[in-house]
Amino acid sequence: MRIPRPAAAPTVEDLHEPHASFHQSSSGEAEFAEPFFNKDLILVPQVPYTQVWIDFADDGTYEAQVPSGTSQVVFQASDPVGRRLRLRLGELATQSGGVFDWQVPTGERVAGRVVDENGQGLAGIEVQALSVGAGVSSAVATRAAGVFDAEWVPGAYELTGAEGSASFFSLGTVEVPFADTLELQKPSRVLQGRVVDAQGRPIEQALVLLTRGTRLLTQVYLPYLSAPQIYQSGGLAAAISGENGSYQLRAQAGTYAVVCFPEVNAGVGRVIGTVVLDGNSTRELVLPTPERVHLVYGQIREPVDQPGGELVLQFFDAQTEVVVQVSDLGYRGYGAELPPGRYQVRAGLLGPVGGFQRVYEVGSVSIDRDMRWDIDLADAVTAVAEGMTALPQGFTLAPNYPNPFNPTTTLRFSLPQAGEAELSIYNLLGQRMATLVHGVQEAGPHVLQWNGRDDAGRELASGVYFYRLQAGGQVETRKLLLLR
User: Which domains does the chain have, with CATH numbers?
Assistant: First the structure.
């Protein structure tokens, strides 16, 4: 079946040529200063699936045609020894030409080591640092004795270690500025084996993920001549299978879910099962071939305030444990081939430097035929965001914030184990006004927003309401106040 052509792509009629100077701060051999080998300025407009790459001269000046409207501005640089940097500088809002100067800040100096479980330094490990909040993505390789040094702007960072181009593991988090030397330990527990199809044939370039939940979003960025970067909303380790289907995952001791996709950024994947890592173990991951699939396609409408960036859609069937992820096809049209089932749908917006800057809980859809299904993110609930402070483990319903609120408030809860859960809003008469969560939920923290509307989309009146969480035989209720 042919996917209908999406609505006509927006045309950029007003192209401007701002001539501007670009200033780069410098402090010795700071990571954000010279010497960088390749430098670019990237504009990410709200026009979907569009980026404008701008070269600038040695003196920092540039001249380019840019679309009207608001764009996020990103500085990107790399050097011959493998350092990489993507840094969000701010927003450019223009309806005409002009001079726009940008300052690349010098970050806080960070020194550290990557060691094994015996404290021995490990050279050749690429330390990837990502702060969605600060708008920074950086990579630097360890030298002899496992040492590295970098300069990162203040913020909360997720650190990942990359060993070659096929094995990725969590190195924890850090808040910059950090006064001491970072001591980062490569996880000692290993899960390894092969990825094969139903006939036992090895699958090369499959993506294998180790996570505490089944509904993580992921996207792999493949820079030229550098280690890949894998962005995950909650993942702990990742691997790309080799020629014989071999993979290796590293993590600290614990209980995890294993998720596998037949391709790096696409395909019908599956939650393979639960694994307890208390030592080294071997497991063959079998990806069955669906007997039949249906084509689901449509268009995606975004909130008016959504910044530019690539969207990733995830379809998850909790009954069959099938997971399918697709990227939008451009101008917010999408198409996916799904086995029959009932899917919970989640969308993630990649940030200009990597990572997911927004995640939406879209809803659910039953698939039993080829069909068109349009997605409206403007009415979706904003869900988990990377970098969110973790809730305590166990059954927890946190106070909403802000409270009182108008028009939206954030609700947070945590589940000790995966299972059926329901989170609903009630009025003072005990009448259910809105159901925010209903169905199988993964273990761990959850974050979502409520817009003060009932299930029919009607605005509720000012007053006191209750939100009630029920899961695993436990119930907790809290009060909130809506002010119009």
Answer: 15-104 (2.60.40.1120), 108-185 (2.60.40.1120), 189-287 (2.60.40.1120), 294-382 (2.60.40.1120), 396-482 (2.60.40.4070)
For 385-418, the pLDDT digits (tens) are 433 333 445 788 888 877 788 887 878 888 888 7
- Kindly report the pTM of this predicted structure: 0.69
Of 55, 81, 65, nearest to 14 by C-alpha is 65
Contacts of 335 (CB under 8 A, 6+ apart): 3, 295, 296, 297, 326, 329
Give residues with Cβ within 8 angstroms of 446, minimum separation 6. Answer: 383, 384, 412, 413, 414, 415, 437
Instruction: For the chain, give the number of residues.
Output: 484
Q: Which of these, 283, 241, 278, 279, lies nearest to 258 by C-alpha position?
A: 283
Q: Which residue has the higher pLDDT, 121 or 310?
A: 121
Beta bridge partners of 256: 275
Handedness of CA 296, 299, 304, 305 (dihedral sign): positive
Give the tens place of pLDDT for each residue, 54-64.
Answer: 887 777 787 87
For 37, left (φ over 0), alpha (ψ -120 to 50), or beta? alpha
Provide the residue type at 420 as one letter: E
Q: Residue 350 in contact with residue 356, Cβ under 8 Å?
A: yes
Q: Which residues contact 426 (CB under 8 A, 6 or more apart)?
A: 432, 433, 465, 466, 467, 468
Instruction: Please give the radius of gyration of the chain, using alpha carbons only, rounded to the nearest integer.
Output: 23
228-256 in b/e form (b: 16+ CB < 10 A) is: bbbbbbbbbbbbbbbeebebbbbbeeeeb
Q: What is the C-alpha to C-alpha distance for residues 234 and 238, in angstroms, rounded to an integer?
A: 12
Beta carbons of 411 and 423 less than 8 angstroms apart: yes
Q: How confident is the model at residue 229 (pLDDT cuts 50, 70, 90)?
A: low
